[in-house]
Amino acid sequence: MAILLRDESTAVRVCQAMIRADARALLDAAQLPAAELSILIIDDDYIRQLNRDHRGKDKTTNVLSWPQDDSPGPDGSMILGDIVISADTAAREARERGIGTSSRIRRLLIHGFVHLLGFDHEISEIEAERMRAEEKKFVTIIEQRRITEMTTLAINIDHVATLRQARGGLEPDPVTAAGICELAGAGGIVVHLREDRRHIQDRDINLLRQTVKSKLNLEMGATEEIIGIALDLGPDMVTLVPEKRQELTTEGGLDVAAQEEKIAAVIKRFNDKKIPVSLFVDPDDLQIKASASAGATFVEIHTGRYSDAVDEAGRKKEFSLIAAAAETAFDLGLRVNAGHGLDYLNTGPIAALPAIEELSIGHAVMSRAVMVGLETAVREMREIMFKAEGG
Ligand code: PXP
């Protein structure tokens, strides 16, 4: 099977890895695994020209498709046809619908694909109904594959516990904070149970396990003591991070490549208890590939160097590394999260990366919460992410 994808869009950034993965899944679902499908992503000007030249309609449109009328050979190989999508129109329609651009491109790809299979809504109302039913079938198959609609905001509440530990008392309670974050729309709660228990305590994770309704992500170093606690607790997922006693916060990504076997064994222990594992790694192909081969379900891409960049050139360079790493991970079948150092100014571009499912943010939200309240701080961050995704 060949997916021939060319991205000629200039104003809208599209996730090629996601389009490729969707196209492959569509061919599989249509039982045409050996077919060749060509996909071209272009701007409005070009699609208008194609629409005028081939259909006599001098206006832009979202998707065009041309079947090849080829029939499968003995080995199933065939040329299915071409799908052309305007990234400009897709982005505009996404904004109107309050969804991400890549979600809209996915729907257009499915529409074009169903046309290639011989369905045509322009023939009659009955045909239109048949085509809608077929599209619905593929939408269900494709969208259930991977949850990549809106990027989720997971809030790290460690700093609430840091404030509590400053006086060694009961206030502020991270368990209450978790509830407020969820009320404000957080899709997950993250806590780091450190060996030195400098902020989150064992009591916190036990109560959070009972009260968190969204998703409890336990961040942890892979030491025997903490692994045992985590296996007993049964969080919704764990994120393995390197942990140093002296550091103020997690400093670098996990060197998975250097200890793949050890990490694979830890992942297996969690997977045996149906707990998915995320590895916190730098945006580096070597680490992403090692994470996939160690059997991780997720990677969390470290955005620290991007956040710490002191000038625009540095930020752009780090952003490109994150974008490329996210696509590599997605292509390898990993689910992709990101986090560290994200704030109210730098989160937008990361949230707009379509391969990324979830952002883990702590310090910036807690710092703002001191000024505006926790619920407002979480809502404001969610708004930034929603807008960045074309909402
Ligand atoms: N992800 C991981 C793995 C982390 O260690 C941290 C910091 O605790 C975060 C995300 C959140 O970083 P920040 O507090 O800078 O938002």
Describe the protein in words:
- The protein is of the alpha/beta class.
- The protein folds into two domains: 2-148, 3-Layer(aba) Sandwich (Collagenase (Catalytic Domain)); 152-388, Alpha-Beta Barrel (TIM Barrel).
- The protein is 49% helix and 17% strand.
- The chain is built from 16 helices and twelve strands.
- It has helices at residues 16-29, 44-55, 87-97, 101-116, 125-145, 158-167, 174-183, 202-211, 224-233, 260-272, 285-294, 304-308, 312-331, 347-351, 363-372, 374-388; strands at residues 2-7, 35-42, 63-67, 78-86, 152-156, 188-192, 216-220, 237-240, 277-281, 298-302, 335-339, 356-361.
- The strands form two sheets. An eight-stranded parallel beta barrel has the order 5-6-7-8-9-10-11-12, surrounded by eight helices. It has a four-stranded mixed beta sheet with strand order 1-2-4-3, sandwiched between helices.
- Strand 11, helix 14 (347-351) and strand 12 form a beta-alpha-beta unit.
- It is elongated.
As for the number of domains, it is 2
The share of residues in extended strands comes to 15-25%
CATH architecture of the largest domain: Alpha-Beta Barrel
Helix-strand makeup class = alpha/beta
The overall pLDDT average reads 92
Percent helix range = 40-55%
Strand order of the largest sheet: 5-6-7-8-9-10-11-12
Q: Termini, distance in Å?
A: 35 Å
- The helix/strand order is EHEHEEHHHEHHEHEHEHEHEHHEHEHH
Shape: elongated
According to CATH, the homologous superfamily of the largest domain is: Aldolase class I
Which fold name is given in CATH as the topology of the largest domain? Answer: TIM Barrel
Number of strands: 12
